[in-house]
Amino acid sequence: MQRKKIDLSPYLLISPALIIFLAVVFLPALNAILMSFQSYDLRRPSKIGFIGLDNYIAIFNDPLFWQSLWKTFLWVIFGVGFQFILGFVLALILNKKFFGRGAVRSVSLIPWVTPGVLIGLMWRWIYDGNYGVLNDIFLKFGIIQEKIPFLAQQTTAFPSVVVTIIWQGIPFFALMILAGLQGIPTELYDAADVDGANGFQKLFRITIPMLKNTIYVSTLLRIIWVANSVDVIFNMTAGGPAYSTQTLSVYVFNKGNALNLGYASTMSIMLTLILLAVAILYLKNIFSSEEE
Q1: Whole-angstrom Cα distance, residue 121 to residue 82?
Q2: Are 227 and 88 spatial neighbours (Cβ–Cβ below 8 Å)?
Q3: What is the pLDDT of residues 66-93, one digit of tens each?
Q4: Domains of the chain as residue ranges with CATH
Q5: What is the DSSP letter of 260?
Q6: Which end of the chain is more exposed for a tag (fewer CB within 10 A), N or C?
Q7: CA gap 154, 158 in Å, rounded
Q8: What is the DSSP letter of 49?
Q9: Are the C-beta atoms of residues 37 and 51 closer than 8 Å to each other?
């Protein structure tokens, strides 16, 4: 009996991508897991060594961890929530036919394609208490009587960075939803017009149900991206003042900058597990609703 010859060409074709994945994703993740069980502080290299679950125990006793986790929850809920609402409205507008629609579509993508570091620096200038443009506008319209240091006080710093991440993420939802809108058959709207349906009925009976999968996928992706976002907050406030804008990802970054890599790795693993749990519950609800 002749043995079947194994074709190795498919494996050779995917090997470059697999090698890159192992080098960029798998090995660093494995290294982070190993470091989370060590006292890995580069300021005290002589004390680097295995400490078991001590880092994980320290996290649960760390009030800054819980404060950062709560800020992350608010950061994601308000950030992604308003991104979706405003992005949905923008997509509906861009789906209409009007003069200069192509130019408006291109311009609307600017916040999304702009690097996060540049966005952080730009909005830090906008919010600046001395020469920021936002204070000048508010003063000219009589909204405020004196300049407000938006990023220097706890009451306004967090809402300010949330507004920034909303501005950045609106085009993502607009682009995803716009692509979904263009895939909806126009015959459905024509039939609804014949039946006498109004705009709201067409929106909730046709548009949103047809966009369900697009909304699910884009929202989950954005939740993960926003929860892991560091560049915008770090370049605006670095987590301050008094940790009022410090999300969990920023806390991880700050600990890494302080060379406490073991503790930073532990918090990054915890953030990964939290996001994994959210993704599993999210997808479970999606599949259960589709089965019904």
Answers
A1: 22
A2: no
A3: 999 999 999 999 999 999 999 999 999 9
A4: 34-291 (1.10.3720.10)
A5: B
A6: N
A7: 7
A8: E
A9: yes
